Amino acid sequence: MSFDLALVVLVASVWLLLALAYALVPALAMPGAALLWGAGGAAFAALAWRIRAAERGAFASRH
Amino acid sequence: MNATTISHPSLLAVRRLPRSQRALLGAMVLLALATLVLGVLLGLGTALSRAGLLPMDPEGGYRLLTGHGAAVFFYWLYLGQGALLLALVATETRPQPLLALSWLGWTGLGAVAAGLAFGFVGAASGTPLLYDGTPELARTDPAAALPFYLGYLLLGLGLAAIALTALATALAGKRETGGAEWSAPGFGAVAWAGLLLVSAIAMLAVFTPPALWSAGLAAEPFDHATRWHLLFHNLHYLPLMGTVLVWYVLVRELTGVTSSFGGRFSKLVFSLYLVFVPPTSLYHMFLEPGLAPSIRVLGSILSLFVGVPTVAVFLLLTISLEQHARAQGARGLLGWLKRLPWHEPAMTALGMAVVNLALGGTFAFVLIQEKLAPLLSDTFFVPGYFHLLTVGTVSLTLLGAFTRLAPALAGAGLAARSWLRRLPWLVSPALWVFAFAGVAAGLQGLPRRVMDAGYDAGAPTSWAVLTTILALAGVVMAAGLLAYAATLAATWLRRSLASREVTAMPSAPGGPLVAAWSGPAAVLVLLLAMYVATAVAFELMQALPITAAGAAGH
């Protein structure tokens, strides 16, 4: 896993975990929070997936 | 296929973009400057109206305030960031400067421009909703608020399109370079685009319910304030993240110095912005009366992390610059500062932006204290401190970067360079007067969203004095910003390219590692200033006969 990819995966993980916390911990309940951070986590996860695809595609074309 | 390296790490490489893509970036810069001019004029009108120097009924004043907030905070800051974001990804991540999906970038710009038009029709015709668009203010005539909400929805769609253009460009670069790692600014731009995309999603989430309500298609949304806090939280971080990334790029471009800590450490610091965004949003809930005490404590602790990434980038840059200068023979505590290229307009803008951020950051930490937030959030303390950040830090940084970008895009020399070099020295002192007067007024309880705060001669006399000082400082600040924007726009009217104005410094040679303490010492001073400012604010607030707390968020 490249350093770029690792950092984006880290960000996606933090956002998705926070989304879960906002969704499941009653004391943290804020309307829209879980949805927003979850959508953000999904966006960064999608970005990580595209980075991985770009890196693997480039690797495959070199070999 | 071998990995391709990128040999043009400079904003100036936008000169090599295809003509249509230079036109896209140029149009974004010019529209950004136009919204800055509009927003500054409306802000000036607001300040003069509050001081009684511009006769106007209160509703007219609120229209000015609504237009000022929307034009500057949403359109100027985000068009400016959009232009720099696209310039960075095109030049940092691809072997040859090129945007992918540039049609999507044009679509985004068109949507933002349409949003600006709708927003201003709404602000001029319906109930002035202020920039957060609270639905309860539009209850008497919801339909009249529809253009205002449509404006924000178009802005959100436009920003999403610009962010996707940036991400597609960076991914294309990743493929073209054989999967090689992005440069530190290239990675930073990707992170910036990601946060911009999420913020655009947040904008759509916030303003879709009131838009549907004002169109008669849904019930009135009663959770608008909370959703707004979430959007607003992102809007705190996004411009700051862009600002420090632009500092990073400008320092390299103006001095040739790159980070002493290496590119990977810089990437880690840029990604910290994204790591800290969700957990620190809790402090926006401090004004909610039902918030559990344990969450208040947790929010206070987490809020301490707000400034960590920004301080880290500041340290990274100052230590790198000082180490390099000392290795080249700089002496004395601040001798390294003298070696910076102060003849460059971008350097003076950057220098003043750093000072303004330190001041604004100090007051920001006062405001996010759990005990003080309810007392100060509805007062003029808020506009007092945040102008240090929006005008003094982010706007000066964007304008400084435009002194590099505009000549490269227009293919012409920068007009009135010496004036542009001096204008940050004019704007910043006026801003400091504005900020300190605003903070002082806020500590004395002057409400921030009341046009006529005379209260039938029942208000403290100091309020009138401070409001007049605010207006006069606003005049000087506005004059400086208008001159800056007009001078930059004039670049497109010039013909020839003056070569000395569009050169980037070659990479500075590495030297032996030397101690560099100015940056860490500055951070210690900043922490001390935050402590003193918080203590003084507590003392002042306890000395006042205040029994009521504010109800709106900051």
TrEMBL record, chain A:
Listed transmembrane segments: 33-51
Membrane recorded as keyword: yes
Keywords for this protein: Membrane, Transmembrane, Transmembrane helix
Designated name of the protein: Uncharacterized protein
Species name: Benzoatithermus flavus
Automatic annotation (TrEMBL), chain B:
Keywords of the record: Electron transport, Membrane, Respiratory chain, Transmembrane, Transmembrane helix, Transport
Residues spanning the membrane: 23-48, 68-91, 103-126, 146-172, 184-208, 228-248, 268-286, 298-321, 346-368, 380-402, 423-443, 463-493, 514-538
Pfam families on file: COX1
Keyword DNA damage appears in the UniProt entry: no
Keyword Repressor among UniProt keywords: no
InterPro entries registered for this protein in UniProt: Cyt_c_oxase-like_su1_dom, Cyt_c_oxase-like_su1_sf, Cyt_C_Oxase_1
Domain Cytochrome oxidase subunit I profile: 29-497
Protein name as annotated: Cbb3-type cytochrome c oxidase subunit I
Organism encoding this protein: Benzoatithermus flavus
